[in-house]
Design goal:
This protein is an alpha+beta fold and 230 residues long. 39% of the residues lie in helices and 18% in strands. The protein is elongated and about 90 Å long.
Length: 230
Amino acid sequence: MSDIHKMRIPDIAILKWRNIADLLAEVAGVPAATINILEEDSIRVIGTSQGSDRPFSEGTTIELKPGIKMYCAAVIQAKDKLLIPDATKSEFWRDSAGAKAGYIAYAGVPILQQDGEIFGSICLFDRKPNEFKGPVIKLMEEFSEIVTAHLSLILKNTQLEEALKEVRALQGLIPICAQCKKIRDDKGFWQKVEVYLESHSKARFTHGLCEDCMQKLYGHEKWFKEKDGK
């Protein structure tokens, strides 16, 4: 699971996605539209049209079980669009969860991240046969790209906030011992410089010796003088 699945989606983004679902349902003339995201072994409905006749409420989590026949799950697993004009005429889809709930027509497109990894799906549901002709599918694909762009911005903002936290943690006066160079933390404990920085940032240290210290430590040793040709 990538970082983008683990981060918190801002409320303003969810509102925009809900508006997208509402608009799609209106343009397509169907009872419901949903925007779903993949979470581990489940799908969560994160945006939905606001009509009363909808298959899922916003926030609903659907577990992905082996052998389950679910429209949205098929889109996510295949990373490809799916069009079902009439599930009652499909030997495979007639006993699916959607068809059993009365939604016999379905259209869905995947939402992909910029690296091609699946994020979720945009779905349309209808209780009567529907071939979803005209610009409906193209509009869904356009909205999918808009959501992908939103995700990219959200991820970059999250990364920027984390970087700013590190900068703020290292701002101001840092008490450091003039002799041993240990740093006093905000709890009053003295720590080695590398320990302090590792606990306040993502920096990690690897140790070596500068030329001056090598000279001080080993300058009198025969092997060291021979190494330098002295």
